[in-house]
Amino acid sequence: MRQKKKTPKKQAVEIVVLSFLIALFGGAILLMTVPSPQILLEGKPTERVDVFATYTDAGASARFLFFDISDRIVSSETVDTSRPGRYQIRYAVSVFLKDAAVFRTVEVVDRTPPVVTLVGDSELRLEDIRDFSDPGATAQDNYDGDLSSSVTLSHTEKKIEKGEDAGGTEYTYTYSVLDSSGNTGFATRRVLVLDKTPPVITLRGEETVTVMLGQPYEEQGAAAEDAVSGEVEVSVSGSVDTGTEGEYAVRYTAEDEAGNTAEVIRKVRVKKPLPAVSQGQPLTPGGSYVALTFDDGPSGNTTAVLDVLQKYGVKATFFILNYSESQIPLLKRIVNEGHTLAIHSYSHDYSAIYTSADAYMNGVYTMRDKILRDTGYSATILRFPGGSSNTVSRSYCSGVMTRLAKRTAEEGYTYFDWNVDSGDADGNCMSKDYLVKNVKNGLRQGRVNVVLMHDAAPKTTTPQALPEIIADAQAKGYTFIPLSSSVPPVHHGINN
Ligand code: ZN
């Protein structure tokens, strides 16, 4: 029998196949035992970088067996430093299907606070904090840009206790702004407030007051106003001895909250009443005289006028109208206190008194007789209602004033008009100050000033104005006189 034998050809095929299989399995086994590549991070695993700064990636290095394969590293991301945020970079390398990777975290952050810039000076000095007008501030941020509109203002204040600014207040204004990364920028302005202006003291009444010897001095006080502290208290010091002639100083002081002080002094002159010029006594030529005259009384108001005249030791003249029985004591008082009791008219009815010269004169005779009977006083001084210059009489009798001026002189009467008008007849109750002002402005030195006033019942402000009028004139050296025939007459121009 023939034995089958492997031929050499067949054997070669087997060897090839076997070798192939061995190589295949061996390769696989070999592959399975191949080590992974190694990758190492260069630099730190976490890094922080400022926005807009240049970031240099330190990268990574990789090895496989003995080989440097760093150039095969692939990184996942680049860091954009213009955008704050958290970036994670993956560095990876791959060899024979084997991978290795490392990571790095990079934070792009904005750590720069905005820059706040003051508009205007960083230090100001003021007298009053209410004068502070905030000039504001601008803000610029490296990342957010212009933040001026987001600037907020706060302030603190503290009293300055020591040093040259003691008493003042220091205000610290802080302008702050926050950027989108939470960084705060700020700037401060110092405002030093110190009131250096003293209060202003305003006296009530005159700066110079004249008090008659023995009469009480009435303190009128003063008010003080400070631009910062407002109304402040006034202390009054100094005393006036009205029993001793002389000049006294009353001192008014005021202090504001900042300690600024002001002082005003009022001069008080205590004088003997001026030597009274009695009726009929001659006057010094060129002397300065005031003759106060009161028309249209008597009335209850006459008492108030007499009281003031008595207090100031001043003699005056009362031009009266017809009166009642009950008013006789008032007339007696006028006479007894040394005033001139003079005749205005029987009535104030123009249509009755100016119908003729006789009509007026008959009224005068009646009044003169009545006054003589009731008081024992012989009245010779006259004042025509409306004054000698009146034109109202034209409607009742042409030329009556011309005739009356002549006739009264012939019959031994003296009439007076006036050259200073107190204005108390400009309305029923003109203010006291109005009367004082009119008389003060009307007086002239070196003449007889005949002052028109009224003591009819409604003229209640007239006696109120008298003290100031008298004190002012006395302080200016005027002598008060009652009218008489020896006083140079004051006449208006006659118009009828
Ligand atoms: Zn009158």
Mean pLDDT over the full residue set: 91
> Which radius of gyration do the C-alpha atoms yield?
57 Å
Low-confidence stretches: none
Question: Are any ligands bound, and if so which?
Answer: zinc ion
Fraction of residues in helix: 10-25%
Description:
With 496 residues, the chain is of the alpha/beta class. It folds into four domains: 102 residues, Immunoglobulins (Immunoglobulin-like), CATH 2.60.40; 79 residues, Immunoglobulins (Immunoglobulin-like); 72 residues, Immunoglobulins (Immunoglobulin-like), CATH 2.60.40; 192 residues, Glycoside hydrolase/deacetylase (TIM Barrel). Helices cover 22% and strands 32% of the residues. The protein contains eight helices and 29 strands. Strands 22, 23, 24, 27, 28 and 29 form a six-stranded parallel sheet that branches. α7 packs parallel to α8. The model has no long low-confidence stretch (mean pLDDT 91).
